[in-house]
Write a structure and sequence with these properties.
mainly alpha
Length: 124
């Protein structure tokens, strides 16, 4: 018999708060990607379609959307994920420092890219 006791209602309350927080962050990320896609003259609704959103993001950053299939290769996907953020920053005329921000703090730098005054310049 365990000596630990817990209150199930407190556990359920904390799980509910966690789920609501995750849902809010997800919706915010979708809105940011919608705005980024719209700035790049792509349909904003593409941000909510699985796989097509990655195709569109790679099309914006690389100029070839089918390169998103590289994400299916183990270990390569990590490197490609970093490169796509670097190319996305360059496509909007941002520096390497901004790309580092996208890599390590996307929840802060994606909204800056989406709601800021950056202009899409095409894949670099």
């Amino acid at each position: 018999m365990s000596t630990y006791s817990y209150d199930q209602s407190a556990l359920m309350a904390s799980m509910t708060v966690y789920m609501i927080l995750c849902l809010a962050i997800s919706i915010f990320a979708i809105v940011c990607m919608w705005k980024i896609f719209a700035k790049a003259n792509r349909p904003g609704w593409a941000s909510i379609i699985p796989l097509y959103n990655m195709y569109t993001l790679f099309d914006i950053a690389w100029g070839n959307g089918f390169l998103f299939l590289l994400l299916c290769i183990p270990f390569v996907n990590f490197v490609v994920g970093i490169i796509v953020y670097v190319k996305l920053a360059a496509a909007f005329g941002k520096s390497g420092g901004f790309a580092v921000g996208l890599i390590f703090l996307p929840i802060i730098f994606l909204p800056i890219l989406a709601f800021g005054n950056s202009i899409y310049q095409g894949p670099q």
